Amino acid sequence: MRNRLKVLRAERNWSQADLAEKLDVSRQSVNAIETGKYDPSLPLAFKIATVFGLSIEQIFSADDVAQAAE
Amino acid sequence: MAEQLTPTAKRVARRYAREIAIASVLYTAIVFAGAYAIRNLDLPQWLVILAALAPLIPALMMLRAYARFLNGIDEFQRRIQTDSMLISAAIVGFGSFAYGFLEEWADFPHVPLIWVFPALIGIWGLAACVVRLRYK
């Protein structure tokens, strides 16, 4: 799964630790999600979307969907 | 590492450390008392069995502490823990299975079953380090 977490975080000037604190998860968790090594559960994806004030689709996209759009 | 913990994670880690410490103290006391009683007192067989099984109580307290810890940490950390446990279970499970055949058929020295659980815990710790590196 692809995500725009790093970009969205940079736009808001948030560090990984800042985002981790807002999500109540570890910084390693944010890093693993951001680098695509770990796909969050649906509840965590909703929480991430809420923190950024966006919909899940605006943050995450499936690899094949992203490739088809390119 | 500690500065990366969220307030929830800190609370969970503190509770885990406290529960493990209590269980460890109890385990040490039970093992020493049991060993002393079995070696120095003329206990009936049922009491010997009871003493031999008594360390299971703090061991189960540790298991409960770990289960509570696992439920308290975030989902990614839980993934690391469960992946590591699975690797440890596979290594120790297949390792002891293979060694059982070596003992029976190839006259390898006998290893007491009591080592299975410490091996499970030790390899789980090592596996957690490796799994953590994989996600870096």
Task: Report on this structure.
With 70 residues, chain A is mainly alpha-helical. Chain A has a single domain, classed as 434 Repressor (Amino-terminal Domain) (Orthogonal Bundle), CATH 1.10.260.40. Chain A contains 6 helices and 2 strands; from the N terminus they run E-H-H-H-H-H-E-H. Chain A has helices at 5-11, 16-23, 27-34, 42-52, 56-59, 63-69, and strands at residues 2-3, 60-61. In chain A, strands 1-2 form a two-stranded antiparallel ribbon. In chain A, helix 2 (16-23) crosses helix 3 (27-34). The radius of gyration of chain A is 12 Å and the shape is globular. Chain A starts with a strand and ends with a helix. The mean pLDDT of chain A is 91. Chain B is an all-alpha fold. Chain B folds into 2 domains: 1-73; 74-136, no CATH class. Helices cover 82% and strands 0% of the residues of chain B. In chain B, helix 1 (7-40) runs antiparallel to helix 3 (56-72) and helix 4 (75-106) packs across helix 5. The two termini of chain B are 14 Å apart. The longest helix of chain B is centred in the first third of the chain and has 34 residues, at 7-40. The chains are: A mainly alpha (70), B mainly alpha (136). The A-B interface holds A 17, 20-21, 24-29, 31-33, 37-38, 40-41, 44 and B 4-9, 73-77, 79, 132, 134-136.
